[in-house]
Amino acid sequence: MAARAMDFRATKRQYSVREDATVEITKALAALQPLYGKDNVEIITTDGRRVRGTVRSMKTTQALTTPSVKMETASGQIVKIPFPTIAEIKDHNLSS
Prior knowledge:
Layout: E1 4-7, H1 17-32, E2 41-45, E3 50-59, E4 68-73, E5 78-82, E6 86-91
Antiparallel strand pairs: 1-6, 2-3, 2-6, 3-4, 4-5
């Protein structure tokens, strides 16, 4: 069975850059919430970096900070990924 993927790449819209970023952060948060604590999740960033592992932490409510997600890789490394840099989220878990 193929992995489910959600694409967050920027598209042409009639919103300002600031509003567009808010929409993308909201989409990323909605996609990541059900995956919290699950392993075998892959995040691809806008610069092409791929991080695969377990979703460990999502920070979205602190003032003056960029919302981000922390992923724990198979080697135990913790990687912090800001929401605006997320291009795609893949859930490699088999769904029943």
